[in-house]
DNA sequence: ACCTGAACACCGTTCAAGT
DNA sequence: ACCTGAACACCGTTCAAGT
């Protein structure tokens, strides 16, 4: 109300936190230097005092999101431990559905991520994994430590849809052109516990894939330790 | 040499093919309407006669790349068939390392992709998969039908590096801070068949993950058909 | 039908200047 | 130390105009 309104002092943390909030609310396209500055009640050029440029801003934004991933789990068993960890990470990504897409286009990786992966490797090795198998496990997990899987259809969005580009496509024609997909969706809808949720529960699918990987790795681990060819 | 040089007539195919070549050569940032037009010896506005705008151009570019994926395989066994198919797709992605990153940020999917997935589902169902398990398989594969896995470190680039952001970081300090990762890399380098290739062969890792998934799915398939709870 | 030039509303970023 | 205004070199896109 007064002519000179009080303004919270700027800081790198405040810049990044505001950027995350802006992208959550209006999408990644809304994150421009000028727009973010306006959100902070400041001129665009002021931001350059806290971030070197747009690229570093984007790096900082994903760092901020990754920091939300709590890197603790109370499970002792390696399998339960990683499972709980990755599922917790998934909750973070569901709060920031744009984060996977941004993360995969960045080519530099925030430093803290290495400490995170170091702990994962430690968990595996302590459980009897050879370093070789631990390495393969890291690759096999892909993006799951970050709480997301590579979802080709409706990326980063929950609730599966399967409509081709032109939505006005005749359903009968689609059934003829895509008989197997059509039959699959029909079967899945029929057997769904709660059909109002749609035919595809991405949480369930995430856990299925995670367990598929964990089970497969466990098999290799047991085989290698019983053969005593570990290491 | 003459004042009026002959110019190959424009077409949507030529626009998209030139765009792919431009991105292959100079990266995704180089793909602007103005730059692409210059590449075609034309003004930027002429492109709008063939593509509705930048977004449709990007959609067309990934469609063009995906069309390179040959959707045939001479293998009869479902496992060998899909394995060969996905590995062939990987060769396409290695030619266009920017394609995975672009594909995952696109939210519309080119129509032909549905036909491709329909064939995959058909292969699975013919092999005795229930529609339910086929659905899970599609999710588990993630981006592998497109020939790439979610590579967190050095995305889309072959040859693993593991240097944190600040490259001048003391190696001894890194070994202390990241003991497990350091030990893992040391073990892998020691055991590598050809150390000049680096400690990490991403082709081998891709195949390991693919086999891990295929083996796990095969186990479910056998279990469901012998229990005759399929469907 | 196909292509263009000028113009508009945006970008990220530099630089010299303010306090 | 922190913030700004004007300016530069770019964007994608519209629109009226050319052939």
Automatic annotation (TrEMBL), chains A, B:
InterPro entries: Homeodomain-like_sf, HTH-type_TetR-like_transc_reg, HTH_TetR, Repressor_TetR_C, Tet_transcr_reg_TetR, Tet_transcr_reg_TetR-rel_C_sf. Gene3D superfamilies: Homeodomain-like, Tetracycline Repressor, domain 2. Residues 32-51 bind DNA. PROSITE patterns: HTH_TETR_2. Residues 9-69 form the HTH tetR-type domain. One of its GO terms (biological process) is response to antibiotic. Pfam families: TetR_C_1 (PF02909), TetR_N (PF00440). Keywords: DNA-binding, Repressor, Transcription, Transcription regulation. SUPFAM superfamilies: Homeodomain-like, Tetracyclin repressor-like, C-terminal domain. It comes from the Bacteria. GO terms for molecular function: DNA-binding transcription factor activity; transcription cis-regulatory region binding. This is Regulatory protein, tetR family. It comes from Asanoa hainanensis.
């Amino acid at each position: 109300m007064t002519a000179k309104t009080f303004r919270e002092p700027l800081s790198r943390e405040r810049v990044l936190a505001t950027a995350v909030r802006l992208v959550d609310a209006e999408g990644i396209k809304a994150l421009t230097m000028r727009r973010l500055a306006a959100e902070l009640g400041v001129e665009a050029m002021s931001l350059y005092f806290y971030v070197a440029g747009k690229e570093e801003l984007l790096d900082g934004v994903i760092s901020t999101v990754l920091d939300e991933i709590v890197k603790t789990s109370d499970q002792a068993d390696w399998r339960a431990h990683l499972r709980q960890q990755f599922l917790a990470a998934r909750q973070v990504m569901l709060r920031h559905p744009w984060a996977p897409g941004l993360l995969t286009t960045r080519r530099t990786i925030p430093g803290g991520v290495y400490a995170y992966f170091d702990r994962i490797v430690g968990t595996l090795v302590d459980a009897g994994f050879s370093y070789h198998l631990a390495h393969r496990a890291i690759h096999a997990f892909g993006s799951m430590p970050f709480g997301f899987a590579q979802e080709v259809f409706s990326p980063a969005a929950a609730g599966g849809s399967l409509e081709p580009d032109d939505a006005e496509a005749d359903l009968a024609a689609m059934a003829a052109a895509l008989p197997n997909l059509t039959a699959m969706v029909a079967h899945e809808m029929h057997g769904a516990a709660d059909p109002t949720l749609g035919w595809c529960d991405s949480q369930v699918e995430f856990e299925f894939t995670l367990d598929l990987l964990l089970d497969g790795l466990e098999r290799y681990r047991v085989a290698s330790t019983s053969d005593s060819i570990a290491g």
